[in-house]
Specification:
The protein has 357 residues and is α/β, with parallel strands linked by helices. The chain is built from 12 helices and 12 strands. Strands 1, 2, 3, 4, 5 and 6 form a 6-stranded mixed beta sheet that branches. Helix 5 links the parallel strand 7 and strand 8. The protein is globular and about 50 Å long. It starts with 19 loop residues before the first strand and ends with a helix.
Length: 357
C-alpha cells in the first residue's frame, strides 16, 4: 500500500503564490533553514533572516511564508523596487548560533544568485551578518565600517514612532504624545529604541519582555516601567507589539483596553481578515504592521539604491502620510485598515506588471 503524502507547501494557507521556497540543511554546522521568496515582480526579494527555536518545522514554515508575503506588501507600500522574501533558521540564537552556521547559511543565499537578498531580523545581529557576507554579496544591513548601512533597527523604530504620531493625529486630533500611556511589548533592538523616542516625547512607557535584563535596561535608560500583567489588560492609550506576531487573536482582542495598536512586530494579526475586522468593530485603530515597520527595509535598501542614513530617515517619514492615506481609504470604503493597506500595495504591484518589458 502506497502511503498518502499530504502537500505541506503548495496547499499551505499562506503559500499565496510564492515563487520559491527553499529548504536548507547543512549537517556539519547543524543549520536548518527555510527561505521564502514570495514575489520578485518589483525587484529582488529582500528580507531579513530570523533565528528562533521553533517548536516544530511546521511552525517555522508557517512563519517564513507569512513573513515573506508581508515583505512583498511592505516594499510596495514603501515605494521600493523590491520584492518580498524572508528566511528563518530553526535554532536558539543564544546557544546554537556559530560563525560556521552563518557562513553555511550565506552559501545557501549565494546559490540563489541574487533572487533573494538577506539582512538582519530577530536573533541575528551585525556580527552575524559579517559571516554571511564572507560567503555572498547578496546581503544588506552590513556594518558601516564595511561600507554598509549598519543596524536597521533604529530606523525601524523611527518609522513606528512616526506611525504612532500619525495615528494619534487621527484618533485625538493631535500628534502630541505627552502624557499618553504606551505599552511596548518586546524591548529588543527595535523596541528599546522606540521606548527612547516615546520617552523623549513625554509619554508614560510601560514595557514587557521575556528577558528581565531587557526590561531593566529600558527602566534604567529611559525611565520606563515594567508591566507584569497580561498585555491585553493594560489600561493604556497605545499597545505597541514589538516582539513576535499573532498577539492579536480571538482571546486578546475582546480584552484590549487601548485606543491604538501600533508596533514593529510582523504579522500581529493571527487571522488577517477576521481579526482586523474584530479590532475595527471595537473602535480600536489598527496600524498595519507591514506599513509602519518598513523603516528597516528602507534603510537596508540604501545599500542598493545608494543613499545615506539621513535620506533613509527622510524616506521613512513618509510612513506618516501613507498611514493617513490608508486610514482615509478605510473610512471611505468601510474596509479595515489592514485591507486598505493591502489594496494599495497590490495596486502598485499589479500596475508594474502592466509595464511593457
Amino acid at each position: 500500500m502506497v502511503e498518502k503524502v499530504h502537500p505541506v507547501v503548495f496547499s499551505h494557507d499562506f503559500f499565496d503564490g510564492h515563487e520559491q521556497v527553499v529548504f536548507c540543511h547543512d549537517e556539519e554546522t547543524g543549520l536548518k533553514a527555510i527561505i521564502g521568496i514570495h514575489s520578485t515582480v518589483l525587484g529582488p526579494a529582500l528580507g531579513g533572516t530570523r533565528m528562533w527555536p521553533y517548536e516544530s518545522e511546521s511552525a517555522a514554515l508557517w512563519d517564513v511564508l507569512r513573513l515573506s508575503r508581508g515583505m512583498t506588501f511592505k516594499a510596495s507600500l514603501a515605494g521600493l523596487n523590491l520584492g518580498g522574501g524572508k528566511a528563518v533558521i530553526i535554532a536558539d540564537s543564544r546557544k546554537d548560533k556559530t560563525p560556521e552556521m552563518m557562513r553555511a547559511f550565506g552559501r545557501f543565499v549565494n546559490s540563489l544568485s541574487g533572487k533573494y537578498i538577506t539582512a538582519e531580523d530577530v536573533g541575528i545581529k551585525e556580527d552575524d551578518i559579517r559571516y554571511v557576507k564572507e560567503e555572498t554579496d547578496f546581503v544588506t544591513g552590513i556594518p558601516t565600517e564595511m561600507g554598509g548601512s549598519g543596524d536597521p533597527s533604529p530606523v525601524t523604530a523611527y518609522g513606528v514612532f512616526v506611525g504612532i504620531k500619525a495615528a494619534a493625529r487621527y484618533k485625538w486630533g493631535s500628534e502630541e504624545l505627552k502624557g499618553r500611556k504606551v505599552l511596548v511589548q518586546g524591548v529588543g533592538n527595535v523596541g528599546l529604541t522606540l521606548v527612547k523616542y516615546l520617552s523623549e516625547a513625554g509619554t508614560e512607557v510601560w514595557v514587557q519582555d521575556v528577558y528581565p535584563e531587557k526590561i531593566r535596561e529600558a527602566e534604567e535608560k529611559y525611565n520606563a516601567r515594567a508591566y507584569t500583567g497580561h498585555f491585553a489588560d493594560a489600561e493604556v492609550d497605545i499597545y505597541s507589539p514589538c516582539a513576535l506576531g499573532a498577539t492579536l487573536n480571538d482571546e486578546t482582542i475582546p480584552a484590549l483596553k487601548c485606543a491604538i495598536v501600533a508596533g514593529a512586530a510582523n504579522n500581529q494579526l493571527a487571522d488577517e481578515n477576521r481579526h482586523s475586522q474584530m479590532i475595527q468593530q471595537r473602535g480600536i485603530l489598527y496600524c498595519p504592521d507591514f506599513l509602519i515597520n518598513a523603516g528597516g527595509l528602507i534603510n537596508v535598501y540604501s545599500e542598493i539604491a545608494h543613499y545615506d542614513r539621513a535620506e533613509a530617515l527622510r524616506r521613512t517619514e513618509n510612513i506618516y502620510h501613507t498611514l493617513l492615506d490608508v486610514i482615509t481609504l478605510s473610512e471611505k470604503t468601510g474596509i479595515t485598515t489592514h485591507q486598505a493597506a493591502y489594496l494599495k500595495a497590490k495596486e502598485r504591484i499589479e500596475n508594474h506588471k502592466k509595464i511593457p518589458v
